[in-house]
Each structure stands twice: as C-alpha cells, then as structure tokens.
Write a structure and sequence with these properties.
The complex is a heterodimer of chains A (about 325) and B (about 325). Chain A is an alpha+beta fold and about 325 residues long. Chain A is built from eleven helices and twelve strands. Chain A has one domain. In chain A, the strands form two sheets. In chain A, strands 3-2-6-7-8-9-1-10 form an eight-stranded mixed β-sheet. Chain A starts with a strand and ends with a helix. In chain B, helix 4 packs parallel to helix 7. Chain B starts with 5 loop residues before the first helix and ends in a 12-residue tail after the last strand. The chains are: A alpha+beta (about 325), B alpha+beta (about 325). Chains A and B meet through strand 11 and strand 12 of A and helix 6 of B. Bound molecules: protoporphyrin IX containing FE (HEM) (2 copies) and iron/sulfur cluster (5 copies). The site of one protoporphyrin IX containing FE has 3 residues of chain A, from loops.
Chain lengths: ~325, ~325
C-alpha cells in the first residue's frame, strides 16, 4: 500500500517500532573520516528520520548490521561452552536498491551455500528492510550495468521531502500503523543510467590468470583491504579465539571481517601463504566478484555500488579493471581465432 | 639628498639594504596562504617601483627589492588592498605595516591539502596574527599540521604542532594491524596487540594520527578536540643555535594564545634596554632570567585542559659558540 504522511507521524511510528526493533540507517559521523575535517557516512542507530543521510551514498554498507565487524559467537571454559545471546530486538535497516541486491548475495553465502549459518540467520530473520530511493546516480555507481538499480524486495520504501513522507509498505505492521494516512501511488525513485558503464566478460580463460595484466595492480595495490570492507557483498570472515588474560582457561570465539587483499588471508597451518602477490589478490577479488560467483550461483556477486572505487586510497578502479579485462578477453579470443 | 629615519623605515616593514638608496618592502602573509588575485598587485609594485624581482622569504612572505626610499608612501598606498584582504591589524590605514618585529606567522599547508594534518594551520596562524600583531617585539611563531613538522617549528620561539587523541572503538576492529604497522614504521611504535585488539601506550603516543589514517574500518577516529604540542625557544643564529623543547603537550588553542601574549609582557619587562637596535631574542632573555621566571609570567591566568602535560623544568642544548 502507498501512503502520504508526515515526518512527525513517521517518527512516532518508528518510536513505537523501536520497542521491538533497533533502527539502523546511514548517518553522518562528523570528522570521523580518514583525514581531518572529513566525515564518514556509515550505519548507526537512529531515533529520528532527520538523522538519516539521504543525500549522499554511505561510505560503508549496511552489511555490518547482519555481519558485525566483530561478533562473539560463543564463550568457553574447560568443558563447557555457551553461545552468545542474539540481540533482544530485531532490526530495521534503511538501504538502497543495489544494497538490497547485496542482501541476496549475503543470503546466498550464509544461508544457501552448504550449512545454514545460524548466527547470520538469527539476525536476518528479525530484520526489516526499508528502501531509500536514488533520484540520481552517485559518483562511481554502476548499478544499471549490474541490473540492480531497482528492487521491490523491500518491507517498505520511504521518501522524505521536508515534512512530507511518501511510503510504500509491504509490511502489515506498518500498514496497520499508517491506517488513516492518505493513500497514494508511490513508486520508488530509481536511476536509469550511470556515468560509469561496465561490461563484464562472459568467461575469463584460465590462461589470463597469470597474464601481465595483473602486474600493474601488483605495483599499485597496498593491500589495505578497504575495497573489501566497504563492499556490501564481501562476506569473508576469520576467527579469533581469545583467552581471558586473568584466567587462561576461559575465553571466547569471535568472528571478524576478513579481506582477500590483506596479508594473512591465505595463511595456512605451518605458515605457508599462497597468494602473496597483490596483483594476484586483485585477480582473485575481481574474478570472485564477476566470474566465479556467477558460475556457482547464477548472478554476479558485485552489485555495482561503486564503494570500492570511492574508497581506494591508490585510485584503483574496480569498474575500470573489469572493462579493461573485457577488452583483454576479447583481444585474446581474436588472437586465438 | 636622502635624509632618512631608518628606525621608522624599519618599523614600517622596509629594509635598510646594502644598496645605497634602495629599500625592500616585506609583505606579511599569515599562515602562508593567499588568494591568487593578490599576486597581480604584488607584481605591479615590483614592476613599477621595484627592480622587477620578488623574493619568497623563509617565513612565507614576499620581499620586493629595489624600491627607492622616496616611493615608500606610494608603495604603502598600493599595499593597502593586500593588507586589507589578508586582514592584517593596522594602526594607520594607508600607511603600510606599522611594525615589523613580530615576524610573519608561518604555517605548513595543513588541512587545506595535507592528509597528515590534524588541523587548519592557516586559520590558527591567522588567529595568532590577529592577537599579536602589530607588536614590534621580535617573536617568531610557526604552525605545523602534525608531528612531521614540515614548517620546522622547532626553530621558532613558539612552535605549535597539531595532535589528535586517537579514539578506539574496539567493536569496529578486526585486527588487521595496519595501525600497528603504521605506528611502528612511521611513528613512535606506541601500539601493541592484546587478544587481537589494540592497546595504545598513551605515554608514547605523539598524536600523529597515522593509526586513524591507516585504519580501514574507522575503528580509530580523531578526538573531536584538536590538541597541540607547544615547543618553545628554538633558534638559529650566531651564539647558541638550538632546537625548541616541549613546554606543553596536549594543550588547547586558547592556552597557547594566552601564553604567547603573556610572553610579550615578560619580554617587555626583562628585555635588555641596551641591546643593539633595542632587539633581543626571547630565548636569550629566558637564559638570563631562568626558565622558572619565564614560566611564572607565561602561565599567568592560563586555563589548562585536564589532559595537558606541562614540562617542568625545560632544558635546552644546541651548539654553544660562546
Ligand atoms: C596439504 C595439506 C593441507 C592443506 C593444503 C590444508 C589447507 C587448509 C586450509 C586452506 C584451511 C582453511 C584455513 C582457514 O580458512 O583459515 C584448512 C583448515 C583446516 N585444516 Fe587443513 N590443510 C591441510 C592438511 C590438514 C591436515 C593434515 C589436517 C589435520 C590433521 C588439517 C586440519 C585442518 C583443520 C582442523 C582446519 C580447520 C581449522 C579451523 O577451522 O580453524 N589440515 N586447511
Ligand atoms: C585437505 C586439503 C585441502 C583443503 C581443506 C583445502 C582448502 C582450501 C580452501 C578452503 C581454499 C579457499 C577457497 C576459496 O577461497 O574459495 C583453498 C584454496 C586454495 N588451495 Fe586448497 N585445500 C586443500 C588442499 C590443497 C592442496 C593440496 C593444494 C596445492 C597443492 C591447494 C592449493 C590451493 C590454492 C592454490 C588455493 C587458492 C586458489 C585461488 O587462488 O583461487 N589446496 N583451499
Ligand atoms: S565490488 Fe565494488 S562495486 Fe561491486 S559490490 Fe563491492 S564495493 Fe560495490
Ligand atoms: S572479494 Fe575477497 S573478501 Fe570479498 S567475498 Fe570475495 S574473497 Fe571474500
Ligand atoms: S582499496 Fe585499493 S589499495 Fe586497498 S586493497 Fe583495495 S585495491 Fe588495494
Ligand atoms: S597517534 Fe600516532 S603515535 Fe599515537 S598511536 Fe596513533 S600512530 Fe601511534
Ligand atoms: S587498523 Fe583498524 S581494524 Fe586494523 S587493527 Fe588497527 S584498529 Fe583494528
């Protein structure tokens, strides 16, 4: 159902919902950026619509709500262990269309790729998603190339213009709360074109894995992992077992985000690491995003949010890498014919 | 025939040069940042009244050589829009700079451009200029954005080095140790790892912010407040060149302004009246009175943040030629 209502009304509805839900949205953290006087836009709890940053793309994605950067899974002593409690409340998450497609990628990895991940599932099952429209494309977005520029897979869509709020609800509880609001036909804002256009090669031959193409990235990438951490579809984690210092026999196991660009990702028991070259790390990431994943799950992993290009301190463009790779694949095919 | 009062000319920020009959005009640029529209005005003075050349001074001003003493009034009139645009305190409008002792307050590029900067050096430099100019006592003040100290504050009477107090949000840390490596390789090795999380040695930390810059998840962020290290009484020169030593660490902007202003009273009280040209470096005055006496004057009415560390006593070394 579509409605027109007011910001004040929506804020009371959210205040009511906050008894059962924590509400997460992209927020501006003034001065928390990498450099002085630069803000960060990332997810945080809100209590009022005015706290939401609608005008700009968030630097970090919503994924930290469902996949915390650092999450304690269980506590252990000598003979016993206890799983960490799930949060008492569910979550409501504001996010954009491409990110909603990113959610599907996370679901695929954590729910449909072998055993169900119970830690993910218990958060996921209690989360509602509210779509934020895109009136125009942001810098580096290429959602149209990835086909993620629209989505109707939301619990609600919300558009705030001053005091007026347009809502499209797919959620009974919200419909009930909005009973009496003016009905309206609400269609989410979405873009139809981006400045960045990406063409993905259908297949990438194995012979290109060791192509000199990747060497350029080996010289440029500093292995900081920012591109992975801002990415809504990077789902890798690693484990940390902590023994409390006063009592070496009790502790906890945490899982934390991991990045295939950062040293240590491929370390194995005994200390061997099999992907030390940063160009090969770039190759692994890029082909994971637009090649391997699709072969296994049928869609590309990347959803075209462009955050990796926004953040890379070395100005390495993932989007441009795919386009260059496409040219390389085509040229290689021509040579073989 | 020239009949000049050289003292007045020097106080007006013109030099008595080695070339008989020619002076040089010095233009103050507090914080070393100016809008490009002022350059044609400086060019015009140099081409019309100077010898067509402009010297970029060590303290980030301009020096226009080859000006005839007789043209000083005309040049002062041409300097007026520059003085106004750069918001220089002036006692008599249209008469140029009314003192020269307190040198141009210089600053590194700071947060206007530099990724390492912890604050806007130009803005603080301009605020300092407003507070201390036109004072004719010989003071050198410089601002630098971070502990890299690109402006070389340690060769100044007052050097102000920006600091941030890194804030650690442990739940945003996944233990990549980029901060640990940066602090070890580029700074003072103040970070260590305990149970995959980071511990900051607050005694060692110099507030450079490398950890903040290198953290990929915003686990490290800057403190909302900017802090400063105030280093004092560095100098070059003939007798005892030396680096400035730490006086305050984790100090606030207001405390630093107050201390510098207090020092003008200290100098006025203790300056050697027989010093040649009436000028004596503050550092040598402190050498004479002792640090304790300086500190008494400098700290008068200064309100310190609870974080501020005051070094006491302060000792200087350097090279002694006398
Ligand atoms: C050529 C021999 C082996 C290779 C290449 C290999 C490789 C790996 C890799 C890549 C992982 C995943 C590491 C991670 O995700 O962090 C792993 C995990 C593991 N390997 Fe091996 N492995 C080998 C032999 C063995 C042997 C002989 C054993 C036991 C006797 C073993 C026991 C394990 C266990 C228990 C884990 C899981 C560790 C955990 O979940 O923390 N592996 N191995
Ligand atoms: C019990 C034995 C083994 C286990 C459990 C194991 C496990 C794994 C796992 C979990 C990965 C990561 C896959 C991914 O990230 O998608 C991996 C990758 C890899 N493994 Fe193994 N592995 C084993 C044996 C071996 C052996 C014997 C070799 C080589 C002789 C090998 C070479 C590699 C290489 C090169 C990769 C990286 C592939 C790439 O860069 O795309 N592994 N292995
Ligand atoms: S790879 Fe880059 S563009 Fe694609 S989803 Fe991740 S951050 Fe967005
Ligand atoms: S790109 Fe790297 S970090 Fe991201 S999901 Fe793939 S392997 Fe993991
Ligand atoms: S953000 Fe850039 S430099 Fe950092 S790991 Fe990714 S590609 Fe490399
Ligand atoms: S501010 Fe500088 S010295 Fe302090 S912990 Fe961070 S990197 Fe190290
Ligand atoms: S750089 Fe950031 S995420 Fe990495 S160890 Fe340091 S605080 Fe943790």
């Amino acid at each position: 159902m579509g409605y027109q209502t007011t910001a004040a009304k929506m804020n009371t509805i959210f205040a009511d919902l906050s008894k059962d839900y924590l509400i997460y949205a992209p927020k501006r953290y003034v001065g928390d950026g990498t450099f002085v006087h630069i803000d960060t836009i990332r997810y945080g709890e809100i209590t009022d619509l005015s706290e939401i940053e609608f005008a700009e793309k968030s630097n970090y994605s919503f994924k930290e709500v469902l996949l915390p950067i650092s999450e304690t899974l269980f506590y252990f002593t000598e003979n016993e262990m206890k799983e960490a409690d799930a949060p008492k409340k569910g979550a409501i998450v504001f996010l954009r269309s491409c990110d909603l497609h990113g959610l599907k990628r996370m679901d695929t990895i954590y729910l449909e790729n072998g055993a169900v991940d119970t830690y993910y599932k218990r958060l996921r099952d209690n989360t509602k998603f509210i779509l934020m429209g895109c009136e125009s494309s942001f810098e580096n977005c290429f959602c149209v190339s990835m086909g993620t520029q629209t989505s109707d897979d939301y619990d609600a869509y919300l558009k705030v213009t001053g005091e007026t709020v347009l809502v499209d609800s797919h959620w009974d509880a919200l419909d009930a709360a909005l009973a009496g609001a003016t009905p309206a036909s609400v269609i989410p804002d979405s873009v139809t074109a981006n400045e960045t256009v990406v063409t993905i090669p259908e297949t990438v031959p194995q012979t290109l894995f060791d192509d000199p193409f990747w060497e350029d990235y080996g010289n440029r990438c500093i292995a900081c992992g920012r591109c992975n951490f801002v990415c809504p579809t990077c789902t890798c984690f690693t484990m940390q077992d902590i023994f409390y210092t006063d009592n070496g026999k009790a502790g906890e196991r945490r899982r934390v985000w991991a990045s295939c660009h950062i040293d240590g990702y491929t370390d194995m028991a005994g200390g061997h690491a099999f992907r030390n070259d940063k160009g090969q790390r770039m190759r692994f990431k890029v082909l994971h995003k637009v090649n391997d994943y699709k072969r296994r799950f049928g869609t590309h992993m990347c959803i075209g949010c462009g955050r990796c290009d926004d953040v890379c301190p070395e100005y390495i463009s993932f989007a441009n890498c795919i386009n260059k790779l496409n040219t390389l694949v085509n040229d290689t095919a021509k040579e073989e014919n | 025939m020239l009949d000049l009062n050289t003292k007045k000319i020097k106080k007006n920020a013109y030099r008595i040069t080695k070339v008989r009959g020619e002076t040089a005009s010095r233009i103050r640029v507090p914080g070393g940042l100016l809008t490009a529209e002022l350059l044609p005005l400086i060019q015009n003075i140099a081409q019309t009244y100077g010898n067509g050349k402009i010297h970029l001074t060590t303290r980030q001003g301009f020096e226009i050589p080859g000006i005839k003493y007789g043209d000083i009034d005309t040049v002062n009139a041409l300097l007026q829009p520059i003085i106004e645009k750069l918001e220089i305190n002036q006692e008599i409008p249209g008469k140029g700079y009314t003192s020269a002792g307190t040198r141009n307050v210089s600053a590194c590029i700071g947060s206007n451009v530099c990724p390492f900067a912890t604050y806007n050096t130009t803005n603080f430099a301009k605020r300092m200029e407003k507070e201390i100019f036109p004072n004719d006592l010989h003071f050198k003040v410089a601002f630098t954005g971070c502990a890299n100290d690109c402006i070389k504050t340690r060769m100044h009477d007052f050097g102000i080095i920006g600091m941030t107090e890194p804030q650690y949000e442990k739940e945003r840390c996944m233990g990549c140790q980029a901060c640990v490596k940066a602090c070890k390789k580029k700074s003072v090795d103040a970070l260590s790892v305990e149970n995959y999380r980071i511990v900051r040695n607050t005694e060692k930390c110099v507030g450079c912010g490398e950890c903040v810059i290198n953290c990929p998840t915003r686990a490290w962020t800057r403190s909302p407040e900017t802090y400063y290290r105030l280093v004092i009484m560095g100098r070059t020169g003939k007798r005892n060149p030396r680096l400035a030593e730490d006086f305050l660490v984790w100090a606030t902007e207001d405390a630093i302004i107050k201390i510098v202003k207090n020092t003008y009273s200290f100098v006025t009280n203790y300056i050697d009246r027989d010093a040649p040209g009436g000028k004596e470096h503050i550092g040598y005055i402190i050498d004479r009175t002792g640090f304790e006496e300086f500190k008494k004057w400098a700290m008068d009415g200064v309100e310190l943040d609870s974080r501020t560390i005051v070094k006491n006593p302060v000792y200087w070394s350097g090279i002694h030629y006398v």
